[in-house]
Automatic annotation (TrEMBL):
Species of the source: Microbulbifer okhotskensis
Short name of one Pfam family: HTH_18
Stretch list, region Disordered: 224-245
Superkingdom classification of source: Bacteria
SMART domains per record: HTH_ARAC (SM00342)
Protein name per the record: Helix-turn-helix transcriptional regulator
Gene3D superfamilies: Homeodomain-like
Length: 356
């Protein structure tokens, strides 16, 4: 390794270790924080790998395992960060498990692999990693405009552009130079890019916005927060006269059925109310306590659906009709939102309250 690579990769590792220490101290209690820590440690191991003597056996496996886990940790972290109302899907552990197994077998098989077998295993491992990273990037992009937490929107942008792009470039370079000579400039450029991203991340975490990560991570439920010793959220700032009027206008509009508009976005709602979008975001997030615009809409939609499903005069209406009436595009998101509120499907809810 050249002196330039050692300098830049060493600087990147030091900065990432500093960031990982902060995450471990302040955010380890959160599941998302632990997955972020796993991702940071995996990147550190990846940068250290070329600087170490040739490893084999268990030491090599021990160092390579966090590296193999990075794409999976990225996807799980982005899901917990952006979809805090939903647990990580059970099916998601299947591609994660397959990726880990294939990655370990490709690099640490107990018996030497032939070239005919090692090459397709390596290619499959790279494709699986790309798939997990792509799922993470897709998670960051989905419902971006519905996110009401400003700091988290910035974090999503940083992760989407910087971290995701970095991982894609690294895996593409690994695949490109797996079986051909690596130009001497490539490792140096990689270390330079890693150190630059680590510097930006450290500046953001420690100087520009030290509370941003804490505000972005999903908050535990009330009982869990008390058990874990998490401080309750501070009371919302007081409203001036204009803001009070805007908040009242918003609530009246929604109580009069404004939520029934199919596919309603926060931008459309701001136009309907003649309120600037960023002001509307602040009102719903800081003063009403909602971190996602769709969850704010679901409050009104599920309230109406619950009433209609328990009304004998509307027992003849299909569940789909009610879902479409209150603003959902299809039955699937309605069922998911309803089940989060009542722990049962709309059909089960109706059957319980309107027995035959």
């Amino acid at each position: 390794m050249t002196a330039g690579y050692l300098f830049f990769s060493g600087g990147a590792c030091a900065l990432l270790l500093l960031a990982a220490t902060k995450v471990a101290i302040h955010h380890y209690r959160y599941t998302a924080g632990r997955w972020l820590l796993a991702m940071l440690l995996g990147i550190i191991c990846y940068l250290l790998w070329p600087t170490l003597p040739q490893l084999s056996g268990f030491p090599a496996l021990l160092l390579n395992l966090p590296i193999t886990l990075v794409p999976a940790a990225f996807w799980v972290f982005t899901h917990l960060l952006c979809r805090e109302e939903e647990s990580f899907p059970t099916w998601g552990w299947i591609p994660i498990g397959i990726t880990l197994i294939i990655g370990i077998v490709a690099h640490h098989a107990p018996l030497p692999l032939t070239a005919e077998l090692q090459s397709p295993l390596f290619t499959l491992s790279q494709l699986l990693k790309l798939g997990l990273i792509s799922l993470g990037l897709l998670t960051l992009q989905r419902q971006f405009n519905s996110d009401l937490v400003e700091e988290r929107r910035r974090l999503r942008t940083i992760l989407l552009i910087a971290v995701g792009a970095y991982m894609l470039v690294v895996i593409a370079a690994e695949s490109l130079f797996a079986y051909r000579p690596v130009p001497s400039s490539v490792p140096l450029l990689h270390a330079l890019l890693a150190s630059l991203l680590a510097l930006i991340a450290s500046l953001w975490l420690f100087a520009l916005s030290p509370s941003a990560l804490g505000e972005s991570l999903p908050k535990p439920k009330a009982c869990a927060a008390k058990k874990e010793g998490v401080q309750p959220a501070p009371p919302p700032p007081s409203l001036d006269h204009q803001q009070q009027g805007q908040l009242q206008k918003l609530q009246e509009h929604m109580q009069n059925g404004g939520y029934r508009h199919t596919g309603l976005t926060i931008r459309e709602l701001a136009e309907q109310l003649d309120i600037r979008e960023h002001i509307l975001r602040v009102l719903i997030n800081r003063h009403l306590g909602y971190r996602n615009f769709n969850e704010y809409l679901n409050q009104f939609r599920i309230d109406e659906a619950s009433t209609r499903l328990a009304t004998p005069e509307q027992a003849h209406l299909p569940v789909l009709t009610i879902a479409l009436d209150i603003g959902y595009r299809s039955l699937s998101p309605f069922n998911a939102a309803f089940k989060r509120r009542h722990n049962q499907t709309p059909t089960e809810y109706r059957r319980e309250r309107l027995p035959a």
